[in-house]
TrEMBL record:
Belongs to the DnaG primase family. This is DNA primase. Residues 425-458, 605-627 are annotated as: Disordered. Monomer. Interacts with DnaB. Its cofactor is Zn(2+). The keyword Plastid does not apply.
Amino acid sequence: MSLPPGFLDDLRTRTSIAQIVGRKVTWDSRKSNPGKGDYWAPCPFHTEKTASFHVEDKKGFYYCFGCHAKGDALTFIRETENVGFMEAVEILAREAGVQMPARDPQAARRAEERKGLAEIMELAVQFYRLQLNTANAEEARAYLDRRGLKPETRDRFEIGFAPDGRNALFEHLRAKGITAEEMDLAGLCATPEDGGQPYDRFRHRIIFPIRDAQGRAIALGGRAMDPNARAKYLNSPETPLFDKGRALYNHAPAREASGKSGQLIVAEGYMDVIALSQVGIGHVVAPLGTAITEDQLALMWRIADEPVIALDGDKAGLRAAMRLVDLALPLLAPGKSLRFVLLPEGLDPDDLVRSQGRGAMDKLVEDAQPMVRLLWQKETEGRVFDSPERRAALDTSLRQTLGRIADTGLRRHYEDAIREMRRDLFRPTRQKGGGGGFQKWNPRNRPPEGPAQSTRASLLAQRGAAADVEARVRESLILIACLNHPALIERFEDRLEFLPFLCPDLDEIRRALLQVAMQTLPDAAEAISARLGFDVQERLSAMAHGRITRNIRSGADIEDTALELEEVIARHRALIGHAEELRDAEQEATGVASDGLLWRIQQAGEARASVDRKPFGDSDAGDEETEDLRAKLQAMIDSKVWLKSPK
C-alpha cells in the first residue's frame, strides 16, 4: 500500500514521541526537563541502571549513548513492538487519531465490515469475562485453580466462561442492537437449519479470546467443562475476521516479548502458552487446533529467525514434528529455520513448568535440536540398513528429500550435515565374533579429519623430499581419477573416507570431494573449486605431471579408471602400513627385543614384496619410496636388530 505524500510527516507532527516512549520507560526526573521537551531514561533496548537514553520531543528523535540505538516514533514502535513498517504506521495513526488512507472502495468496505465485527467480538469477550465471576462459573474457576492459573494471569489473557444456556450471549448482544446476522457473521451464534432461533456456539466452556497481531479480538476458543462433550476444545468458525490457518494465539504479546529476548517458542495449545507466560516466558505462541500451516510459519519467521517448536513427548507430538519438517523444508532460507524440543513423554509445557519450574523449560529450549536432526530421524527411525540395497534406498530418499530445499547454498550445508550422520551410522565396527557390522549414530564417533598423528610422524612421513613427492603423486592421482569420473566417488566412498592422506592440502580436497558425493553433480571439480577457492584440477595436474595415464583422463572408460583407482588405493594403503610396521620395529629395537619383533619384520618384508613396484598405471617412473623402504628393511635384517640388548 502506498501512502499519500506528506502523510507520514503529518503523522509525526500530530504525535509526541515522548508520550509513545514514556509507555515503555521511566523518566529520570533529575536529568529530564519536560518544559524543554528534553527527556532521559534507562535504555529500553539494553540493560543498564544509568539514564543514557535521550528523547528530544520537539525534534521527534531518540538516541542512546550506551548502545547507540536511534530513530523516530515509527522506529521506536517497530523495535519495541517487533512489527513491520505498515503496522507501525497503523499503530501511530491510531495514537494520533488519524484515519489511514483507504486502499480502494471495496477494500474500504471490507475494512469497515471487519471493524464492525471486531467491535462485536469485543462485546462478546467482555460478556464472557464477566460470566467467569458468577455463581454458574464455580466449576470453571475451580478448574483454573487446579491448573495453577493466578488471578492476574486470568486477567492478562482475558479468560472467560460461557454459561450452559443456549441463548445467553445472543440475548445479551441483541439487547445492544446487534442483529442475528451480524452474530452469525462473527461466528458467535448459529441458526438451526429449520429456521429456529439462533443459539450460542459456545456453551458451558472456559473461553480463551484470540486476538490478531494488532490486538483485535477476532475469534474465541473454548474448553468444554463436560467430559462427554463432542469436542474438548472448540474454536470459532472461519469468518471475515478469522482464518485459523493464518492466526496465532498470543501473537501480539509474543511478538513484543520476542523483540527483547530474540526467541520464539511454539507450543501446542492455549494452556501451554498461558502456563509459560505465567512463569515469565512471554515469547510463546500456539497454532489454533490444527497442524502448523505455511502461513503460520511465515508469521513465526517474521517474529524470530529460528522458532523453537515445543511438542508433547508422545507419538502424536513426534508425528506433528515430522509433518512440520516436510512443510518447512522447501521454505528454508539462510538464517530462517526451526529448532525442535520434544518434551519428556507424558508431559506438555504446562505440566513441565508446574512440576519442575521455569528452569526445566529453559534447559530444554537451550538444548533444542536443529531441524536437520529431525529430518535424519524421520528418514532412519525404525529402519534397518543391513544390506547394500537398503543403504542405497536411504541414499536415494535423502537425495530426493534434500532436493526440496530451494536455496542451493543451504542445501549444500544440509548435505554436509547428513553426510556426517550417515558416516556415523554406517561406520564399520568389529563384532565379537570377528565379523563386520554397522554401529548406530553417536555424535562422539566422528571420522578422522586426516591421518593420525602417529602416521604423520611415521618413517614414511619423515623420510624426506623424495618420499613426500611419491605420496603426493599417489594422492593427487586418486583425486584426479575421481574428479574426472564423479560416478566413482560414491563407488569408492568408504575406502576414500578412511584412506590416510599424508598431505594436508590434498586431504582438504579429499574431504571436500566426499562432501559433494551426496549431490548429483555434472562437474564435481567445479563444485569443489568453488568451495575451496582455487582451481582444484589445475593444482592436482601440476602435482601429478607425467603420471596421468590414459585410463584416468576425462573421457576414459569408467571401468578402466576404476581398476587403476583400485590399484593405487591398495598401493597407497600398503606402503603406509609397511612404513608403520618398520617404525614400530625401530622403536622396539631401541629397547629389549620382544619375541615378536623378528616376526613383524618378516611380515613387513613379505607385504612389501607383494606390492607391485610400478607406481601407477603404465608409467615407468622409478619408485624411490619403495626402494627406500626396501633398503631400510634390508638394513634391519642385516644388523639382526632382534638380537639387540638394552644398553
